[in-house]
Design brief:
Elements lengths: L3 E7 L6 H8 L5 E5 L4 H7 L16 H6 L6 H11 L5 H9 L10 H16 L8 E7 L1 H8 L4 E9 L2 H8 L19 H20 L11 E5 H6 L1 H11 L14 E4 L15 E6 L4 H4 L2 H15 L25 E4 L9
Parallel strand pairs: 1-3, 1-4, 2-3, 4-5
Antiparallel strand pairs: 6-7, 7-8
């Protein structure tokens, strides 16, 4: 069996990864798997909804995948993953990486992880001659580093970056964890903590894959895309990503330059906007430009200043932008229904 080709979206939260993942999932040979590191707890133990709308255990795809993992103990695996990937272990992880050692020490659980991705590839792309692409938007750099060391995983890293002032503002929004019917809320860290997480995870992503100091971290395995560039020209950016993983763009799901047609995906976790379907306009979410307080803006800019310029972001607040779109709660974009029915939230 050929290796499972995984496109791993790395970086920090609220950077548009859900939007990018969902768009890629519309393409033949691509599976929008969502945040697969959460499959064990949110998907199996808690049986939350798949992107297709039914609980993970009843999903026509994931029920087949789970049947291939009879020996796995999902709650135990989830707990051990949280320990193995914790933030305080990042310095040691980077040291091991610099020395050419596996960044995340091996564990018997890795057999189940490798089998998971092999099973997903087998059941998601049963009729494809070429290996399909599993789009994993888990984002956490340590988990991506763990995937890169697994036997049978052919890893490509897509580094999705967004202005940290925008991500900090987005984290303060009140959002249900899995859509309107869910009374549990996504975490809402203060702006200073959101800024530090942005700095740590994006810097770690560059250190792990963007420096070219290891063969698998060369330019053919790492691509950086800014959220702002994606929403400005989604078709061109999507085609660039598709070519990056060695696939042919073919017909893209864009009926017009800033409009995308979304069908249900099989994402196991992620922002609740992953459940959105229909033909929608893609418009940059710029509410933060006027909504983020002067103090919040100054705090985030001061904490992330050392790398802002590296990613092409100015220190000064942008000029006020016209509020010509309707916020739907997607931290990666604002999507506006193109008709009274298509694309509306449930």
């Amino acid at each position: 069996m050929s290796a499972a080709r995984v496109l791993y979206l790395a970086g920090s939260g609220r950077s548009g990864s859900t939007l990018v993942t969902t768009v890629l999932g519309q393409l033949p040979g691509f599976l929008a798997a969502g945040e697969l590191r959460y499959l064990w707890r949110r998907g199996i133990v808690e049986n939350r909804p798949c992107g297709c709308g039914v609980p993970i255990g009843n999903c026509p795809l994931w029920s087949k995948v789970l049947a291939d993992l009879p020996e796995a103990e999902p709650a135990a695996i989830a707990g051990r993953l949280a320990t193995r990937l914790r933030l305080r272990g990042l310095p040691a992880l980077l040291r091991r990486h610099r020395r050419g050692r596996p960044p995340v020490p091996g564990h018997p659980d890795d057999t189940h992880l490798a089998r998971l991705y092999a099973s997903v590839a087998e059941h998601a792309f049963p009729e494809h001659d070429q290996p399909g692409v599993i789009v994993d938007s888990s984002k956490l750099p340590p988990y991506g580093a763990l995937l890169g060391s697994l036997s049978g995983v052919d890893l490509y890293v897509l580094h999705v970056v967004r202005d940290p002032r925008a991500t900090a503002f987005s984290w303060r929004r009140r959002r249900a964890l899995d859509g309107g019917a869910d009374d549990r809320l996504m975490s809402r860290p203060p702006v200073w903590k959101a800024a530090l997480l942005w700095l740590v995870w994006n810097t770690a992503t560059v250190r792990l894959w963007g420096t070219g100091n290891r063969p698998e971290a060369g330019p053919d395995r790492y691509l950086r895309v800014r959220y702002e560039d994606f929403v400005a020209d989604p078709a061109t950016t999507t085609a660039r990503i598709v070519r990056f993983v060695g696939a042919t763009p073919g017909e893209l799901p864009f009926p017009s330059p800033n409009m995308v047609r979304l069908a249900p995906t099989h994402s196991v976790a992620g922002n609740p906007s992953r459940h959105r379907t229909g033909v929608v306009d893609v418009v940059a979410d710029t509410e933060w430009v006027t909504g983020l307080s002067a103090r919040g803006y100054a705090v985030v800019t001061a904490l992330t200043g050392p790398v802002l310029r590296r990613f092409g972001y100015p220190l000064r607040r942008p000029a006020t932008m016209a509020a010509d779109s309707v916020s739907t709660g997607d931290p990666g974009s604002t999507v506006v229904p193109s008709s009274p029915v298509a694309g509306q939230e449930g």
